[in-house]
C-alpha cells in the first residue's frame, strides 16, 4: 500500500474509534469508553479476586464528599456494627460514615450479554453478601429456612448474562434519604464504567424504599435529584404501603431486641420501657424514634404506616393497646405508632412524589408467613413481615409493568428463592 494510502487508512481507523467513543458503543476489540465518576465521588479502595468472598469478582469502597452526609448513630452494644469481610472493605471500621459505600461487581459485569446492567439494593440489618450472594453466611435460619443455600440472586442473574452489581450501605438501618443518594452514586459509577445511560434497580424490603426514593427525587435539602437513569424498578417484599409489624406484635417482637430478655437482633423497639424477668428497664438506644440522645434506627420509622384500620391489631399480644396507640401498659411503655410516623415516615411523601412513568415498576410479594425464629405477621396475608397488600401497593407508581406473589417464599427467602429469581429475570428481560 502506498504511504499516502496507509496514512489515510490510519486516519479512518482513528476517526472510527473516536466516533465509537463518542457514541458510547464498543469499538472492534475494545470496550465502551466513558467519562469517570462524578467529581464528588472518591474511590478509596478496591479489592479484587483473591481478596473478596461469596463469589463476587471485586468490591470497591467510595466516599461521597457532598456536604450533608453525616455519621449516623449505632447501638452502643455493637449489634449494628459491620461484620466479617465488610469490616475489611470499610478499611477496618466497624461503624462507617454514611457517605461511604461499597460497590460489588459480579462475575460477568464486563462480559454479560444483557444490555442494561442491574443494581441490587439490600434491606435492613443486612449486607450485599448475605442478601444476594451467600444466604447461608449468617448460619442456620438466617435465610428464613432451616437450611440456607450458598448462592443467591446474584449468581442466578449473572449466569443468565446479566451484568450485576450491588450496593453495600455503611449503616444497616440508616436514613433512607441518604441511602437514596448512595443508590444514585452507585448508578453513576456503573454508568461511567460501562458507558451506559441506564440501569435496572432491584430493591428488597427496606432497600426498595431507598431505591424508590431515588427515582422519585425524594431527597434531603442538600441532595441531588433523580438523574433519569433507571429503566426498571423491581421491588421484592417492599413496604410500598408501609408496615406496622413492630407495633402490631410489639411484645413478641421486643423479646428478640431487649437484652434483659435475651434479645440480640439489630432492630428497633416500639417501647421505651419493658419488664424482663421482673426487671423494669429503659433502652432509649433501641427506640423507633429519637430518644435519650440516640437515633439508631431512622430507616425503620421511615417505613411505618398504620394498617390497624384494615387488619386491626394483634389483641392477643401483651399490652397490645398501649403498644400500638401509646401509653403505659402492664409490662411496657411507649409513645405508639402515630408518634413514630409523625417523627419521619416516608410512605406518604413517597406516594405524593410518585415514581415517574419513565421507570417501569414491578412489584413482587412473598406469600408464606413462616419465617423461622420470629412471630410472623398473621393479621392478614403476608410474607411473615410485610403484608401482601403493602408489598403490592401501587399508589404513586405511574407505570406498573407487573405484579406477582410467590406463595412459597417468606420475607427472608426473597433474595434466593428460585421462583422469585425466575420472575425477576423475566421482568429484567
Write up this protein.
By secondary structure, this protein is of the alpha/beta class. Helices cover 28% and strands 16% of the residues. The protein has 15 helices and 13 strands. Helix 5 crosses helix 6 (206-215). The longest helix has 21 residues, at 3-23.
Percent strand: 15-25%
The overall strand count is 13
Termini Cα gap: 48 Å
Task: Name the helix and strand elements from N-terminus to C-terminus, one letter apiece.
Answer: HEEHEEHHEHEHEHHEEHHHEEHHEHEH
Strand order of the largest sheet: 1-2-3-5-4-6-7-12-13
Helix count, DSSP H or I runs of 4 or more residues: 15
User: What structural class results from the helix and strand content?
Assistant: alpha/beta
Q: Report on the biggest sheet.
A: 9 strands, mixed
What is Rg?
23 Å
User: Helical amount among residues, as a percent range?
Assistant: 25-40%
Shape: globular
Compute the average pLDDT: 92
Low-confidence stretches: 1-33
Amino acid at each position: 500500500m502506498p504511504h499516502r494510502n496507509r496514512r489515510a487508512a490510519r486516519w479512518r481507523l482513528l476517526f472510527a474509534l473516536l466516533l465509537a467513543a463518542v457514541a458510547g458503543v464498543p469499538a472492534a476489540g475494545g470496550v465502551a469508553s466513558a467519562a469517570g465518576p462524578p467529581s464528588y465521588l472518591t474511590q478509596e479502595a478496591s479489592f479484587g479476586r483473591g481478596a473478596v468472598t461469596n463469589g463476587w469478582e471485586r468490591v470497591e469502597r467510595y466516599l461521597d464528599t457532598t456536604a450533608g452526609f453525616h455519621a449516623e448513630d449505632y447501638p452502643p452494644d455493637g449489634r449494628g456494627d459491620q461484620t466479617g469481610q465488610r469490616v475489611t472493605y470499610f478499611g477496618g471500621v466497624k461503624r462507617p460514615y454514611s457517605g461511604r459505600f461499597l460497590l460489588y461487581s459480579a462475575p460477568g459485569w464486563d462480559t454479560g450479554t444483557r444490555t442494561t446492567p442491574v443494581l441490587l439494593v439490600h434491606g435492613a440489618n443486612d449486607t450485599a453478601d448475605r442478601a444476594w450472594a451467600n444466604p447461608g453466611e449468617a448460619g442456620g435460619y438466617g435465610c428464613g429456612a432451616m437450611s440456607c443455600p450458598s448462592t443467591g440472586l446474584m449468581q442466578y442473574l449473572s449466569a443468565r448474562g446479566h451484568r450485576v452489581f450491588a450496593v453495600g450501605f455503611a449503616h444497616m438501618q440508616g436514613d433512607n434519604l441518604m441511602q437514596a443518594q448512595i443508590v444514585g452514586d452507585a448508578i453513576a459509577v456503573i454508568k461511567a464504567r460501562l458507558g451506559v445511560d441506564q440501569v435496572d434497580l432491584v430493591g428488597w424490603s427496606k432497600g426498595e424504599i431507598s431505591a424508590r426514593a431515588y427515582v422519585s427525587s425524594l431527597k434531603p435539602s442538600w441532595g441531588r435529584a433523580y438523574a433519569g437513569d433507571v429503566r426498571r424498578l423491581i421491588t421484592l417484599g417492599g413496604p410500598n404501603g408501609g408496615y406496622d409489624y413492630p407495633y402490631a406484635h410489639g411484645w413478641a417482637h421486643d423479646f428478640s431486641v431487649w437484652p434483659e430478655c435475651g434479645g440480640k437482633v439489630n432492630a428497633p423497639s416500639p417501647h421505651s420501657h419493658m419488664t424482663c424477668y421482673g426487671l423494669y428497664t429503659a433502652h432509649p438506644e433501641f427506640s423507633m424514634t429519637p430518644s435519650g440522645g440516640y437515633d439508631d434506627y431512622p430507616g425503620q420509622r421511615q417505613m411505618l404506616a398504620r394498617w390497624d384500620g384494615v387488619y386491626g391489631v394483634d389483641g392477643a399480644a401483651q399490652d397490645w393497646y398501649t403498644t400500638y396507640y401509646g401509653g403505659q401498659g402492664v409490662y411496657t411503655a411507649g409513645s405508639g405508632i402515630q408518634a413514630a410516623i409523625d417523627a419521619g415516615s416516608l410512605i406518604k411523601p413517597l406516594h405524593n412524589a410518585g415514581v415517574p412513568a419513565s421507570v417501569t415498576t414491578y412489584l413482587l410479594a412473598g406469600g408464606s408467613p413462616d419465617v423461622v425464629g420470629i412471630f410472623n405477621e398473621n393479621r392478614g396475608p403476608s410474607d411473615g413481615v410485610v403484608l401482601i397488600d403493602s408489598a403490592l401497593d401501587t399508589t404513586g407508581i405511574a407505570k406498573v409493568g407487573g405484579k406477582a406473589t410467590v406463595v412459597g417464599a417468606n420475607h427472608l427467602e426473597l433474595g434466593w428463592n428460585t421462583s422469585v429469581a425466575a420472575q425477576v429475570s423475566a421482568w429484567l428481560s
